[in-house]
Amino acid sequence: MIIDFVPVWLLFFLMVGVVLLSSEIGYRLGQKIWGKSQAERESPASAISGSILGLQAFMLAFTFGIVSDRYETKKSLVREESSAIRTAWHRADFLSEPDRTASKNLLREYVDRRVTLVASGDLDAITRSQGEILTKQRQLWEMAVVNGRADMNSDIGALYVESLNEISNLHAKRVGIGMQARIPTAIWAVLMSLLILGMISLGYYTAIADSRRSRVSPVLAVAFSLVIALIAALDHPGGSLMPVSQQPLVNVKSEMTGPN
Length: 260
What we know:
Layout: H1 8-36, H2 42-91, H3 99-120, H4 123-128, H5 130-150, H6 155-180, H7 185-208, H8 217-235, H9 247-255
């Protein structure tokens, strides 16, 4: 989406400009119509303006709810992934050597890589690293398969395989929700359209009410723009603008230090 190429701080100032410009257009349009004919009444214009702004408020709340829920899901997935990795780490103790040491080293590298990448906030690096992460998952899986075939009736082996499956599934969920799930372009288009139309109608109503421009109009522009910018920051892929705490993974990493 085009919004991905616009920094959030720039989007904020652009939205302030759009809100003020839309209000000014509506005000001048109202002055022009009011100057030609004073048949336009305030009540219908006020009702229309209020309805559009009400729809705008609903869309803002709806869109913010989407990104807010997704942000909470990201935090939950970090906790779940750290728990799954910790479980796999402990269950690896039941593997025979040299697979026990090799699997623990891979898990340690896996966690270290994930923590380092997220901390860097480099979206391109995170994207490029997906192949490396999947390779480590595949190596862990191959060792689990070898040990599982050695003893097909091993409950411990089955539990270890289960923990690896959980790690793989949670990684896929984190990629899908953190980097691929986005607010649809149609919602952004409706959100922006309602904002512009709402400000035009508000400016128009101000003009036909024979009122001067309010000095607090910039405050309204800033308020709307702040919410839009916050939604964009929460929707940004990778969470580099609104990072999710990786402390659960950091805790697991610290537990993995020391001898195997």
